[in-house]
Amino acid sequence: MELLVWLAVLIVLPVVFLFNLLISRRNQADNAAASIDVYLKQRFDLIPNLVATVQGYMKHERDTLAQLTEMRERAMAETQSHADKVAMDAQMTRALGSVSVAVEGYPQLKASENFIRLQGALNEVEEKIAAARRNFNGSATDYNNGVQMFPANLLAGILGFETRALFAISDAERQNPGVNRKVSG
Amino acid sequence: MKTLQEFQDYFERELRPKLVTMQAERDARRPALWWWWRWVFAAAIAISLVVAISPISGSRSSQLLSWMWFGTLIVLPVIYWIRYNRWAAEYGNREKDTTLVAAIRFMVPEFEYTQSRFVPEKHVRSSRIFESRGDIESVGGDDHFAGVIGKTAVEFSELRVAIRDRNLRDDKDKPVMWYRTGMFLRADFNKPFQHATLVMPDPVEQNLGTEMAKLIGGLQAAIGSLDRFAAEKPAAASDLRPIRLEHLEFERLFEVSCTDPVEAHYILTPNIMERIAEFQKRTRFALSLAFIDTAMHAFIFRGALFEGDVQSDRTSFAAYQSYYEQLHQIFELVDAMNLNSRLWNKA
Questions:
Q1: Is A181 part of any domain?
Q2: Segment A125-151, tens digit of pLDDT
Q3: What chain B residue is nearest to A150 in terms of C-alpha separation?
Q4: Is B269–A182 a contact, with Cβ atoms under 8 angstroms apart?
Q5: Do A146 and B225 touch (CB under 8 A)?
Q6: What distance in Å separates the CA atoms of residue B172 and residue B169, rounded to the nearest whole number?
Q7: Higher pLDDT, B170 or A182
Q8: CB-based contact (8 Å) between B84 and chain A?
Q9: Could you tell me if residue A25 is inside a domain?
Q10: Does residue A118 belong to the interface with chain B, where contact is any CB pair within 8 Å?
Q11: Order of strands across the sheet that contains B295-301
Q12: Does residue A123 carry a pLDDT above 80?
C-alpha cells in the first residue's frame, strides 16, 4: 500500500510540475502575442490615412494600396487565428515595404508634410511591432521547447498543447536595425 | 575631446615640469617619514629588550613595562598611519589642484567641470541601478562634468554610494553595508520611456570569471528548462521582471530586467546589444545600464577616478594616460549606444 502511495507521488508530482510549466509558458506566449495585437491595431489604424495621403500621387501602385485596405478590413472584421496573424503580418510588412520603396519615385509626396508625419508615426509603430515580435518569439520559443522536449512532450501531446508559429524577423531587424531606423527616422 | 596625442603634448609641455618638482619634494619628504617610522621600531625593540633582560622580571614593574611594550607596538603605528595618510591626502589634493584639474580641463574643454559636485542624488536614486543590492543609504562624489557629446546632453561624475542590504545582517544584527565607487553617467536618450529597463552585470560572470560563467551556462543549457524556470521568479519586492534576449554574448555578460518586455526589446535591439557587449569586453570594469524616464543611466564600477597618487611615478605620461582613458570611456559608451545618431526621436 505504502509503495503504491509512493509510486503515485512519484508520478503525480512530475506531471503537476510539467503541466504548470507548460501552462505558465503558454500564458507568457499569449501575453506576448496580445502585446503584438495592440501595435498591429495601431498599424491598421494608420492604413486609411496612408492610403488617402499617397493615392493622389501613386498612379501605378493602386493594387498594393487596395491590398492594404483589404487586409485591414479583413483583420478588423474577422477573429483571426495566431497562424493567420503571423501570415498577415508578413504580407502587410511586404506591402508597406513596397509602398516605402515606391515613394522614392514621387519626390512631391516624399516632401509632403502630411506624409512625413504619417511616415514618422508608421515607423514608430513598425519599431514597436518589431520589438513585440522579438518578445513574442522569445516567449514562444520557450513554450515550443517545453512542448517538444522530453518528457514534457508526452504530456503536451496528451493534453493538446500545440507549438506556436514564430514571426519572421527580417534581416534588417536581425542584423542592423539601426540603419533601418536611421533611414526611416 | 582632445586626441591622445594632443594631451600627451600638453602633458610634456605644461604638466611634466610641475610634476617633476612636486615629485622631487614628495620623495624628499617620504624618507623623513620613513626615518620617523624606524624610530618607532627601534623604540619597540628597545623596550622589549629591557623587559626581557630586566632583573625584576615577574614583578609589578615588569608587568608595567610589558604593557608599555604592547602600547608602543599598537599606538605608535597608528599614529604613524594617521600621519602618513594625512600627508598622502595632502599630496593627492595638491597634485589634483596643480596638475590634474588642468589636465581635465584640457582634455574636455567643451565640458563644464565642477570639482566639488556630483550627479544629483535624485538621478542616482531614480536610475534604480543600486536597487538590487539594497536601499541607498548615502550618495557622495566629486568631479562633475556636464556638456554635450555630439548631439547628446550628458553629465557624469565620480560617485560613491553606500547601500544598506535589505536581507543580510552582521554579527551585531545590523544591516550589511555595500559600498560602490565608480563613474556615473546620465545621458539624454531623447526618448521618453514609459517603463524601466535595467541591464546589470551577470553576477556569475563578474564573480567567477568568464570560463566559470561559460561552464555554468553550458550546464544550464544541458539541464534545459531549469534555469529558465528559476529566471522566471520575480525579483523580491520589485516590479522588475527578468527577461531573456536573443543575443548570446550579451546574455552571458548581463542580466536584463524590466517592467515591460516589449519596451526592453525596443531599446535593446540586436545591434545595440552587440555594441554594449563589445564595450563591456573592452572595458574591464562592471557596467550597469538603466533606461528610465528620458535618460540612459550608466555606472562603471571602477573605483575612485581623478585622484593624485603618492606611490607611483607621476612624471611619466603613462600615469596620466589612464585619466584620458577614463574620460574617453564615456565617449565610447555614448557611441556604443548610438545616441548621437538620434535613432530614437522624442514623439
A1: no
A2: 888 888 998 999 989 998 999 889 888
A3: B224
A4: no
A5: yes
A6: 8
A7: B170
A8: no
A9: yes
A10: no
A11: B112-114, B135-149, B152-169, B175-188, B295-301, B286-292, B197-201, B254-258, B241-243
A12: yes
Tell me the β-bridge partners of B160: B140, B181
Domain of residue A27: give its range. Answer: 15-165
Poorest-confidence range of A152-156, A168-172, B127-131, B191-195? Answer: A168-172
CB contact under 8 A, B266 and A128: yes
Q: Which residues pair with B155 in a beta bridge?
A: B146, B186
Using CB atoms and an 8 Å cut-off, which of residues 135-164 of chain A contact chain B?
Answer: 135, 137-138, 142, 145-146, 149, 152
Interface contact A24-B232, CB threshold 8 A? yes
Select the residue of A146, A175, A178 nearest B341 (Cβ to Cβ): A178
Q: Are strands B197-201 and B135-149 parallel, antiparallel or unpaired?
A: unpaired
Q: Which residues, numbered 76 to 95 in chain A, qualify as contacts with chain B under a Cβ-Cβ cut-off of 8 Å?
A: none
List pLDDT tens digits, range B76-108: 778 878 888 888 888 888 888 889 999 999 999
Say which residue the cell 506591402 belongs to.
A95
Q: What's the pLDDT band for B55 if we cut at 50, 70, 90?
A: low
Q: Is residue A56 part of a domain?
A: yes
Please report the number of interchain residue pairs, chain A to chain B, with beta-carbon separation below 8 angstroms: 64
Record: contact B262-A132, CB cut-off 8 A: yes
- b/e map B77-105, b = 16+ CB within 10 Å: eeebeeebeebbeebbeebbeebbebbbe
Q: Which of B340, B328, B334 is nearest to B5 (CA)?
A: B328
- B265: amino acid identity, one letter: H
| Residue A175, pLDDT score | 47
DSSP state of B15: I
ipTM of the complex: 0.75
Chain A closest CA to B25's CA: distance in Å?
54
pLDDT at A182: 34
Q: Looking at the domain assignment, is residue A26 inside a domain?
A: yes
- Preferred mutation among B190, B262, B345 to probe A, highest tally of A CBs within 10 A: B262
Cα dihedral sign, B299-B180-B115-B8: negative
Alpha-carbon gap, residue B116 to B118, rounded angstroms? 7
Number of domains in chain A: 1
CB contact under 8 A, B270 and A175: yes
A131–chain B Cβ distance below 8 A for any pair: yes
- The model's pLDDT over B112-161, given as tens digits with 9 standing for 90+, comes to 999 999 999 999 999 999 988 889 999 999 999 999 988 888 999 999 99
d(CA A102, nearest CA chain B) in Å:
23
The more confident residue out of A119 and A76 is A119
Q: Is B231 on the interface with A (CB under 8 A)?
A: no
What mean pLDDT is predicted for residues B261-281? 89
Q: CATH number, domain at A54? A: 1.20.1440.20
Q: What is the pLDDT of residue B205?
A: 55
